[in-house]
Each structure stands twice: as structure tokens, then as C-alpha cells.
Write a structure and sequence with these properties.
This protein has 471 residues and is α/β, with parallel strands linked by helices. It has helices at 38-56, 72-81, 85-102, 118-130, 204-216, 230-244, 279-286, 288-295, 308-328, 340-347, 349-358, 363-382, 386-403, 421-435, 439-451, and strands spanning 3-6, 11-14, 22-27, 60-67, 110-113, 134-137, 140-143, 180-185, 200-202, 219-226, 252-259, 262-264, 267-268, 304-305, 454-459, 462-467. The radius of gyration is 24 Å and the shape is globular.
Length: 471
């Protein structure tokens, strides 16, 4: 039975989706104000394995991942660089998505940008205002935290003990210091949009509630992100969604699933701290298979202390997997299971792999079974066992499907999807032109992109860029 740890209850619980056979998930993605580091890849790779295993267990999965493309940090960084906010966001988002494809991360069902969801954001704020759960003050709109009786239930914090925290700053316009911004009134030099309560831009927390509501409705089976998002982001998300939405069942989340941080010298990797290891550089130096596997080598709920030496050592272990694949990739299927300790490591591998992933997506245990299977296969094949070669081939294909394992000869999914930097810059400039309503400039940039050998396609969840040879 598949079991999942739920942050809200602090327990591993049997998994059951609200609609049988259909699992819905919302995962908080990146704020693309700078180049991605290894920490940004961890939730994407973890949720890729979660999605794969849910599908293996017979679920149809609807996965929504967001990109926060309007944010205080983006505005500050764009101002320093002297570029439009939209251009900076699109350039860094394109690089990140190209890296995810190199790591074999499957596309989510919906990749949702905040700026493309202003209508549901405004609608959700209007609901909160109508119900007295929000108020206008000083040109902004704030959530009344105390309007929801169980504020703090997710993060296990008492409301009266909360006087400071992430993104909570004193403000004379607030009725309560803990009230948080749903909408920030227009400020000089910042992007803004019209709304019934005044021109401005959305706050951080309301974006995710609105996007989850738009694509998944009032109930989400699995809601994920880094453990640093539990408070205040997910706590605030939870209460504003409950306060705004009506349902026969209480609006909410079945399982809150949070991954641990990637750390460096015991400190969380962070763009703001400047201690992040650039993801693209790691992929270039060590290959996507090693980087992906390294991120799965520690249970997703535990912190991962990064070291270059540790990554190199893990890559050596993966080399043994690759060499086995080269030896067995053409082996015929085995006619029967094998006995003995080594034979059981091969024959029982599918059951052991499933059992590990059923136990709260225990990827280090799954990798342990994989490496045990490789050692057993090498021993039996050296003794001339053709059945061992056939079982090893089957098992490696299962590991590729379940863990996203990249085997020698595989073309990493979407490896060619990321355009070179000059083309990415043209795509970002075109996105900014479209947002500004300069469609003549956008058409001219489309021509320049095509002249460089690439095609850009506008979709609801953002532009998709691919080589002209793929169209």
C-alpha cells in the first residue's frame, strides 16, 4: 500500500485520492530572478519520481507547477540589471526548464505563470473581501489572519506566539502585524495590472491559491514544495483558500509533502546568500544522470548536504549501472526467476523497488536495491548465466521508468530543447514586448528567432521554443 508523510498531521498515512484513480498535485516552483542552483532541482526531481510512481500504481496524475514571475526580488534584480521584469523572468525560467529537461524531468500537466493568472487571482481576492476575510488599506489589500480560527495548524505554530517571520514586516496600515498582502498597490517603476480594488500586483501567497483553484478546484490531493515554504507561504495559502472557497467538502489539501533543503556547509543553498552551486555547471561537469541520481540518494524529507566529492563518488556507482546495461541491453528475456541469494536480488527487484517507493517514496532504499541487483547480476553473468542477463535488462528498464534513470545510449529527454543564450534572450525580449502590447516588435523578434534556427510557439502556460528541425 502506498503511504505518504503528511506535514500537517506529522504522520505517514495510506494514500487515497479524493477521486478514485485520479491524483491531483500542486507544487510551488521557482522565482526566476537569477540562475538556478542545485537546490532548485531537488523538488522537481523528487516530484518527477512521485508522479512516475503514482502513474505506475494506476493513477491518472494532474500536476500543476507554478513559476512566480512577478515578485519583490524579481523587481529589485531587474532594476539593478536595467532590464524589464518580464524579460529577466523569462530568460531565467527558460534556462531552468532546459536544465529540467536535461535531468529527465517530465513536463507537468500545467506549467503556470503568475502573470498569466491575474483573473483568478483578482476573483479570489474579491471573494475574500466580500466575506470580510480581507480589507483594503493604504492602497493594498490584506488578509485578516485572525478570520480563520485554525491559523497555524499546518506549521504547528500558535497565532499569539507569532510576532515575526519570513516576509512579515511591520506596517502601519495593517490591522494585525501578521496580516499579509494579497494585493500590492501600484508603485512607480513596478509592473501593475488593473483590479476593482485598485491597480497593482498580486502578493506572493495568493498567486498559488489562485492557480491551484483554477486548474484543480477547491481540493488538492498533494501539495508540495520545499520545507522552507511551510511557514508562512503554505500556511497562508491554506487559510486564504479555506476562507475564500465554498465546497460541499472543506476546501483543502489531502497531503502536504515537503522536501528537505540542499545545504552547503550546513546552510541552505540560496541565491540570496550566494552559496548556491550553479545547476547548469554541475550538469555540464558530471552529466545529468549523476546529478539526478545524487538528488535521489537521500530521502526527500531529509536535508541533502552537497559536496562535489560526494557527487563524484555517486557518479562512480552509476558507472557500474551503465556498464551492466551495455552488457545486457540485447539480452533475451529470462524464462524463469532465479534462486539463491544472488538470484533473488534479480528476481525480486521489481517487488523491492515498488515496496521502497510505496514507503513514502524512499528513493535511497530504491537505489540500494538497484546497486545490490547490479552486484548480483555481475556475479551471475560472470558465471555464464544468460537468465541473469535477461533479468538484469528487465530490472534496469524498470529503474529507468521508476527513477528516471538515464542509461548509456539514452537521449536525455529534451536535451536539445534549451536554446542558446542569444536565442533565449530574444525569446525573453519577445515575451516582454507581448506583455507591453508591442506586437509589431514581437513579430519582428519571432522572425529573428526563426532566422537563428528556432521556432517559438505561444501556449497558455508560456512560450515553447524548439529547433526548427523538430517541427
Amino acid at each position: 500500500m502506498l503511504a505518504v508523510y503528511d506535514t500537517a498531521t506529522g504522520a505517514v498515512r495510506p494514500f487515497a485520492s479524493r477521486v478514485p484513480g485520479h491524483a491531483t498535485a500542486y507544487v510551488c516552483g521557482i522565482t526566476p530572478y537569477a540562475e538556478a542552483h542545485l537546490g532548485h532541482a531537488r523538488p522537481a526531481v523528487v516530484w518527477d519520481v512521485i508522479t512516475r510512481h503514482l502513474q505506475h500504481r494506476g493513477y491518472r496524475v494532474t500536476l500543476v507547477v507554478n513559476i512566480t514571475d512577478v515578485d519583490d526580488r524579481l523587481i529589485e534584480r531587474a532594476a539593478l540589471a536595467g532590464v524589464p521584469v518580464a524579460a529577466l523572468a523569462e530568460e531565467n525560467a527558460a534556462r531552468y526548464l532546459a536544465d529540467m529537461r536535461r535531468l529527465g524531468v517530465l513536463d507537468p500537466t500545467y506549467l503556470s505563470r503568475a502573470t498569466e493568472n491575474l483573473d483568478p487571482i483578482v476573483a479570489l481576492i474579491e471573494r475574500l473581501l466580500a466575506r470580510g476575510a480581507a480589507y483594503c488599506a493604504g492602497g493594498d489589500v490584506y488578509m485578516r489572519v485572525r478570520s480563520v480560527p485554525d491559523y497555524g495548524a499546518l506549521s504547528h505554530r500558535k497565532l499569539d506566539d507569532l510576532r515575526s517571520g519570513v516576509r512579515i514586516t511591520p506596517n502601519p496600515h495593517k490591522e494585525d502585524p501578521l496580516d499579509f498582502a494579497l494585493w500590492k498597490g501600484e508603485r512607480p517603476g513596478e509592473p501593475s495590472w488593473p483590479a476593482p480594488f485598485g491597480r497593482g500586483r498580486p502578493g506572493w501567497h495568493i498567486e498559488c491559491s489562485a492557480m491551484a483553484w483554477r486548474y484543480l478546484g477547491s481540493w488538492v490531493d498533494l501539495h508540495g514544495g520545499g520545507v522552507d515554504l511551510v511557514f508562512p507561504h503554505h500556511e497562508n495559502e491554506r487559510v486564504q483558500t479555506r476562507a475564500a472557497l465554498d465546497s460541499q467538502d472543506t476546501p483543502g489539501v489531502g497531503y502536504w509533502v515537503h522536501n528537505g533543503m540542499v545545504t552547503s556547509s550546513g546552510v541552505k543553498m540560496s541565491k540570496s546568500l550566494g552559496n548556491g552551486t550553479a545547476l547548469a555547471d554541475l550538469i555540464q561537469r558530471h552529466g545529468p544522470a549523476a546529478v539526478r541520481g545524487y538528488l535521489l540518494s537521500v530521502h526527500y524529507r531529509s536535508p541533502l548536504e552537497f559536496s562535489e566529492a560526494g557527487l563524484v563518488e555517486f557518479a562512480r556507482g552509476l558507472d557500474r549501472v551503465g556498464r551492466l546495461w551495455e552488457a545486457v541491453q540485447d539480452a533475451p528475456p529470462a524464462a524463469a526467476p532465479l534462486g539463491g541469494e544472488l538470484g533473488e536480488a534479480l528476481s525480486q527487484f521489481p517487488l523491492r523497488l515498488d515496496a521502497a517507493l510505496d514507503a513514502d517514496f524512499n528513493t535511497p532504499a530504491a537505489l540500494g536495491h538497484l546497486f545490490d541487483m547490479v552486484r548480483a547480476a555481475n556475479g551471475l553473468i560472470a558465471g555464464g548465466s544468460q537468465a541473469a542477463a535477461g533479468l538484469a535488462r528487465r530490472n534496469l528498464l524498470l529503474a529507468r521508468e521508476a527513477l528516471g534513470l538515464v542509461l548509456p545510449g539514452d537521449q536525455p529527454r529534451g536535451a536539445s530543447a534549451g536554446p542558446p543564450a542569444p536565442v533565449a534572450a530574444l525569446v525573453a525580449e519577445r515575451a516582454a514586448a507581448r506583455m507591453a502590447g508591442d506586437f509589431a516588435r514581437a513579430d519582428a523578434l519571432r522572425g529573428a528567432i526563426q532566422a537563428a534556427g528556432w521556432v517559438v510557439e505561444d501556449r497558455r502556460d508560456g512560450p515553447v521554443v524548439r529547433p526548427r528541425s523538430e517541427t
